[in-house]
Amino acid sequence: MGVKGKPKRQKSVQQQLEQKTMTALHIGKSIYRSPLRRGLLLIILPALRRPLFHTSEQLAIRPIFLLLSTAAALLGAPLATQGTPVNFVITGSLATARYFHTATLLPNGKVLVAGGDGNGPSQESAELYDPASGTWTATGSLSPGTSEHTATLLPNGKVLVAGGVNGDIFEFGSILANAELYDPTSGTWTATGSLGAARGEHTATLLPNGKVLVAGGVSNSYSFLVNAELYDPASGTWTATGSLGAARSDHTATLLPNGKVLVAGGFNGNLDTGFNLASAELYDPASGTWTATGSLGAARSDHTATLLPNGKVLVAGGFNDSNRLASAELYDPASGTWTATGSLGAARNGHIATLLPNGKVLVAGGFNGDSDSSILVSAELYDPASGTWSATGSLVFARGAHTATLLPNGRVLIAAGVGPGGVQEFVLATAELYYTTQLDTTQPLLNISTRARVSTQDQVLIGGFIITGAQDKTVLIRGIGPSLTTFGIAMPLADPTLELHDHTSALIVSNDNWRDSQQSQISATGLAPSSDSESVILATLAPGAYTAVLQGKAMTTGTGLIEIYDVDQNPNTQIANLSARGFVGTGDDVMIGGTIFHGSPGTAYRREWQYHHDRR
Fold first, then answer.
1. pLDDT tens sequence across 424-433
2. Which residue(s) pair with 183 in the sheet?
3. CB distance 545 to 466 below 8 Å
4. Out of 10, 73, 199, 257, which residue is the most buried by the measure of CB atoms under 10 Å away?
């Protein structure tokens, strides 16, 4: 299925143009991977969506600068910090944005993310997430790269990646028969036996006997597959097994307590019978054959299937030819039948579903339509005892085509995917953690700031921030220079100027001296600078990503400070993050990031981080 769930055979011209746009938005990937010049430091803490910073030649990100993110994740606190109960907390970002990737929990507690689409190195690269540090590190790369593949943890601790697409399926990319094994001990991949049939968008299920069942999918020339194969880790080879009763891709496969495998729904591209299937089948490893079982109440593909503690299987959401589904159904292996259960609060496909330690099922994100705004931020919990869904805290970032992994500590790691970006969805590198217990953020975030040396052209100070929530937020942005002498800064920026840009780099507003405009409104906030030559922008902004640029008037240079204040303290919308890019030197020219949290009445807490020039 496509990202939004439309049949791939009917990809529109607009979708093709959108894909080219998405490619263009990946400017900077090679920059992040560039080797550093000796004596210069590049630190990326958690990276945000690629277009957060200007991508023009004048403001291109260069490896001589430090990119500092003072998200609340650095504090071990949730990103939404306005006193609103939350469940999702941002964690370290991947080095490479991606979607249609896989995520596998390893025996050592780390999570392996591999491959995925992203029109770049994401198809080859793999990364490891360490829950102890909340960070990602690169590991061995796949060869060839792949997306829409499967990844299966084997009993020996290795991970089997099988099939997938190398390149864009719409641009005659290759569907693969390759298979590889990842060894966590060495961090390397080695080739293993190839599939009998090239396939992508298939399923892979670890059987009780240690073998892996791969079923269905789509092959080259976009033909849908009916065949199935078994991988034997002992020999590293594949053998054919019984074929499905119906060819299908984008289906689900669930190992039942009795050892059989339930395959349900899917997509077969048959215009005469309907693109999506309601049929379901059972695979018996003992006989190597498939038998029909009860059909779903609604045909669907790109849905989720979750084995519940009571042995039943919950199928939720999905796509049905032209509609996203909110319906959910339960399969009972004892009777071989499906029954309706409570419906989701929001219809969705391309979402995730995770069985939590408390027996409930978390569903998060996905797509509710074809527009950019239809990418979902909402999350819901299914309670098997009542058969109903209830809302839980929203994701920090709306996303679809992402992954979810239950960690040993009971938290759920949500990684990458695609998210809204105004005109076209953006491929995401961000990751977040779900906590089953809501976190009450009693210390609202008042201010986020960064101080650094401000020079000219590429060496101006750039601060990116995100406004989350569903309502507009009033912020006050200060560009400080002369008043820094009060704090012992010998060479401050003498005459700072500020610009505010939206996520497309379009200029929203600029300011030189704060008294030039909005003087009375700025004074009323109590945040007017002490120097008339310092800059202030007071603006009410819609949720989204923004960039503030601090530079010296008439090409002057010196130490400057960008500060962003939450003026309205509206709990329904928050300032989520400040990512700053600037030159890093020594002495007063280090980069400092700080935040202020409000505590009990009349008190505030400031936290700061310093990043220094590499003196090696």
1. 558 888 899 9
2. 188
3. yes
4. 199
